[in-house]
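Researcher: I'd like a structural prediction for the single chain below. Treat it as a standalone chain; there are no partners to consider.
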Amino acid sequence: MDLRPPLASRPRSRQVRPAQLAVPFALIALVTVVDVLAPPDVHLGPFLVAAPAVTASFAGPWMTGFVGLVAVLAQAVVAMVRTTLTDLNHTFQICALIMISVFVTLFAHLREVRERELVQLRSVAETAQQVVLRPLRDRIGPLGVASLYLAAAAEARIGGDLYAAARTATGTRLIIGDVRGKGLEAVGDAALVLGAFRAAAHQEAGLPGLVAYLEAAVSPDLDDSGDQGESFITAAVLEIPDDEPVLHLVSCGHPPPLLLRDGRALPLDVDRPSPPLGLAGLVASSVTAHTFAFDAGDVLLLYTDGVLEARDAEGTFYPLAEHAAAWSGTHPRALLDLLCADLLSQAAGSTLGDDAAMVAIERLPH
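Model: Treating it as a single chain, here is the predicted structure.
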């Protein structure tokens, strides 16, 4: 089972709560009454501009314009009660109120247009991302697998988190990665990496060769973007043999996986990490596969930095290793369900500032 956020819904009209709408109308009524009762040399009409300005902060252009119209009519009533509509002081107040109401109504319209564009952009990006990220099967050879993807709260911050798995003649190969950057360009780079992985996972004999193939596939595309050295992809590439209780790992600048065993979360740190994909040409290095024990009953947790960077209301980062080690369940899906609920409850406002992806892998008993 693969958990993903629903596609961004079609933009709806801005919902205005009655309590919110009561504020500008109460302000208009208060200023009008006090202005009528005030001494002749006291004029409170300029305060009426606050009504449409406040409305523009939570309502659309139609409601903002309506409140501005009511404010103008209220100023006209004050003018007729206190003097006349042709009084120079009240005439200037009415003209200024009309001008400011038009401006804030225009700003409310531009903001609404921008919000629609952001929702549409996110909908397209999410659609592309769901096509790129194919769901992982619950069972892959001798492995139980679960995957999770959580979209960021910010409309423009959809990212290029990626994961995939491929069966070979001797085992299972997996990749998890994170493209630097956001939006459709990041989704496109993620699609490029996943396409190269799926094409080469069955052909390359070893992990170093597979990583070299991925580097060769993505480097020309990243160089053509004009941001050489600024565009790259962190990734962890793994191979889990069917008949050996081990796993092989190449880390390309990616956060270390966590191995859950006997109530502990052990980070699989490598001695010689490879540079992120797209940077190999700038850094002299060799690709080295590291081997770790992976016995029956062990659970491996792969994740992207969006998980680690989630903060609570006080700015504290999410302690993934601590919470993962406290898990005592029996299935990878249960682990991800627990971490998902825990992550969202800790994140400020139950939202994330960056996309987050996790894959949990359990070696099943024979």
